[in-house]
Amino acid sequence: MISVILPVYNAGHYVKDSIASILQQTERNIELIVVNDGSTDNSEEIILSFNDERIRYVKHETNKGVAAAFNEGLKIAKGDYITFHGADDLSLPNRFERLLAEFCCEQIGYVHSDMLLITEHNSPFSYWQAANISPNDIYSFFLNVGTPFNNGTILFRREAVEHIYFDESIKVGSDTDFILKVAKEKWRSSHVPEPLYIYRRHQANITKNRSYEELARHIRLNIQDEDLMSLNEVNEKGEENNLLTAKLIAGLALSRRWMKQEGFSLFHEAIPLVKTERDRHFFEGMKGLVENNYRHAVHHFQQITDRNHIEENYLGEAFLHMKNYNTAYEHFIKALQLSPNYHTPVKNLKIIGILKGYNIIDKHVDHFR
Question: Which keywords label this protein (predicted)?
């Protein structure tokens, strides 16, 4: 059985269609846990208008927030699989059937899909594609990009989320924080490259209206030293000063996004960890990347004569920023020769290829351009 947890807060305009899309699934063995999180509109009236024994209704007298509503659902869920659904979003009729079919082995803890974005007036406007990510690379993806999946699309195996709850202190990003907790258990994922979930974006759920503190809180909670030391490329380094490397890699990743404050803070924390001349050159090289001073970065990385795979990769990134693609390519290949399972230079080779010419095998869209 699948437990679908649906928080509702003043979603009267959309919740009827959302509930209907769940109840009309081709996979009938579900329970729909609707948590009315203190709605003051007609949401309750709409919810209670459904006469289906698969619905379990929970009501909060006051608004506690989506994380609290998810947790309420988790505590009472009876299903072998669990998913979280937005009250203004829709599921395609065979979504659960398609996702269930991907649980082909015990190592798969969650399955996810692509999603189509629509406006509040049901107008499609964007497509979000996801991909499979190795459990060892999810934290790096989180630092460099953000949420590793289309979070609303995920169906979890019950064992993968056992005793894991949403952090109710996080106003934005509690779902990403939750997924990182699951990912730390090293469950593998499976991806369905179809828009099985339709996400409705409207003014009430656009995060750009949130404060910086709200947006950054879940990041700060996940860049503690023990988190940073889980970076796969740091674990492969096999040297003593790995925390220095971890802080600089994470600091660079965050500074490339909108979180320069957190990125610079990690660089500041790294200063006391600089112990040797090699450390100093690596610090200055990474600092050059953060400051967009790529010649400075190249100079300091090149002062390290016996570069390891990490130093080769970031020297390559400096040349990549300078659009010296051939030299960048040579350093990424060298990094992989030193450490064949190091994923970051593989990602950078992909970037070079995309910048030079991007081709998609799926040509269906060409007929409609």
Answer: Glycosyltransferase, TPR repeat, Transferase
